[in-house]
Design goal:
single chain, 209 residues, 3-stranded antiparallel β-sheet, 7 helices, 30% helix
Amino acid sequence: MSDLVFDCIEARAEPYAAGPTLLFRLRITETSGQRIQAIALRCQMRIQPQRRQYSDEEAARLADLFGGRERWADTLKPLQFTHQSIMVPRFTGATEIELPVPCTYDLEVASGQYFHALEDGGIPLLMLFSGTVFADGAVTMVPWDRECDYSLPVPIWRELMDGFFPGSGWLRLTCGNLDALRAFKHARALPTWDDTIAVLLKEAAADEL
């Protein structure tokens, strides 16, 4: 029976993908000496927010996700990041593959909101592996306890998003609010959506005075 060990070596932004994509380089080691014909591999990634420290600015941006620091003992729980599948080709001993992971900048998605809130340091990830192993003379399952930790550098995520959305982010609006915003933009002859939001924020601040 094969015995597999998984490690994540590094991650990098894929500059030529159609959408924001991270490439995670995985090393898979087979320790029993059995020759692997293929692995239909599945990888679940979770964010482990309790495994790092946060500045006051980061904590303020994370309030929508976790509340204030006084609540973090109860609310700082793992967040789902992604599920991805990949076929691992034949190898003996060890092999390395790159796992592509599409990413979103939608700030209504918990992972996107979490990533956007961070200034520096690492994003603590837990990778959980499963799947089917095709080895010489046997077909077995990847054991349920195969996992590894990886700290994704925040600058790599920012490099990825800056390549696709330089100096910007994304918000999802209902069709009704979008139509109202479009009418306001047209009525004020504002050139961009960013200018439209800036005018609304300025007028809202003036009304509060």
